[in-house]
């Protein structure tokens, strides 16, 4: 019998039941665990951390589909060599893993490996819709993207979101925004409010770091350029005795759940979990909250 989460009147529990999670191709061995812990149809994002791991991403997508989960591969523009490379990988994902949803991102590489360096370029090729992709996510950065804002400023990110939303609507393709992880809800709420004021109305999946040690979280925060919401984590990291203390996102998720219910105009529809402390720790934390 497929796993089904029980009905609940608890807003936090109901919000958490809308979750999506993220993995990499190198974590394909975790697919059985995800199958056992998540209801069929749960969306699982597959990040592409290294340009050479396309085959691993495809294998993970196949495994997730076979497990009854919905694979959402990342397509990082800077990790695509050319149009033929894009056609090959999207075609393989659609044909062999039944992929109909993707997340298109710029990619964290300092230099592109080929002719693309922005996600808008990937969208404009027409390859996604030609391969039956029906739902496309784009990246959001509530606390900015240092790689871009240091050079071009925050306005560039906003204009890019507007262009992508306009493209999605022109193609009648369902879209959504998946954000970089952060550590508190206030910046996400402020950012979402700004988007709505600018006419961007795509639903938002807010990135939430799963339970992990302070040491692990500070490592990822430094790697990903996470902004001011990480100040609590950085402060804790100054105390060497607290480095192995596990930090869980209880308060963060509680506030997101309230925003989901009380301020629906913000369009915060779900938490997107980054399992930095491991899937086992994430599911152990989630278990009593979903009962």
Describe this structure in words.
It is a single chain. The protein is an alpha/beta fold and 291 residues long. It has a single domain, classed as TIM Barrel (Alpha-Beta Barrel). The protein has helices spanning 11-16, 31-37, 54-66, 83-97, 119-123, 127-130, 146-152, 154-170, 185-197, 214-224, 231-237, 250-262, 279-289; strands at residues 20-24, 43-47, 70-76, 101-105, 135-140, 174-181, 204-209, 212-213, 246-247, 268-274. Strands 1-2-3-4-5-6-7-10 form an 8-stranded parallel β-barrel, surrounded by 4 helices. It has a two-stranded antiparallel sheet with strand order 8-9. Strand 6 (174-181), helix 9 and strand 7 form a beta-alpha-beta unit. Helix 3 (54-66) runs parallel beside helix 4 (83-97) and helix 10 (214-224) packs across helix 11 (231-237). The chain is globular.
What's the short story on this structure?
The chain is α/β, with parallel strands linked by helices and 291 residues long. The protein has helices spanning 11-16, 31-37, 54-66, 83-97, 119-123, 127-130, 146-152, 154-170, 185-197, 214-224, 231-237, 250-262, 279-289, and strands spanning 20-24, 43-47, 70-76, 101-105, 135-140, 174-181, 204-209, 212-213, 246-247, 268-274.
């Amino acid at each position: 019998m497929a796993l089904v989460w029980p009905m609940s009147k608890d807003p936090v529990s109901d919000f958490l039941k809308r979750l999506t999670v993220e993995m990499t191709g190198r974590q394909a061995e975790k697919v059985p665990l995800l199958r056992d812990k998540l209801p069929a149809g749960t969306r699982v994002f597959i990040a592409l951390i290294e340009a050479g791991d396309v085959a691993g991403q495809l294998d993970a997508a196949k495994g997730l589909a076979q497990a009854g989960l919905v694979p959402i591969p990342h397509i990082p523009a800077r990790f695509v060599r050319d149009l033929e490379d894009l056609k090959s990988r999207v075609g393989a994902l659609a044909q062999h893993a039944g992929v109909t949803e993707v997340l298109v991102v710029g990619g964290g590489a300092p230099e592109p490996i080929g002719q693309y360096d922005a996600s808008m370029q990937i969208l404009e090729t027409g390859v996604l819709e030609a391969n039956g992709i029906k739902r496309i996510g784009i990246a959001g950065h509530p606390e900015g993207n240092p790689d871009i804002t240091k050079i071009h400023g925050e306005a560039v990110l906003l204009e890019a979101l507007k262009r992508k939303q306009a493209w999605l609507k022109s193609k009648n393709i369902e879209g959504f925004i998946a954000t970089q992880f952060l550590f508190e809800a206030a910046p996400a709420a402020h950012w979402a409010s700004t988007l709505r004021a600018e006419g961007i109305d795509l639903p938002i999946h807010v990135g939430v770091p799963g339970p992990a040690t302070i040491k692990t979280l500070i490592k990822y925060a430094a790697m990903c350029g996470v902004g001011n919401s990480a100040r609590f984590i950085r402060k804790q990291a100054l105390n060497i005795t607290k480095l192995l203390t596990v930090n869980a996102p209880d308060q963060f998720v509680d506030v997101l759940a309230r925003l989901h219910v009380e301020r629906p105009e913000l369009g915060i529809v779900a938490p997107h979990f980054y399992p930095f402390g491991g899937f086992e720790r994430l599911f152990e934390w989630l278990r009593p909250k979903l009962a």
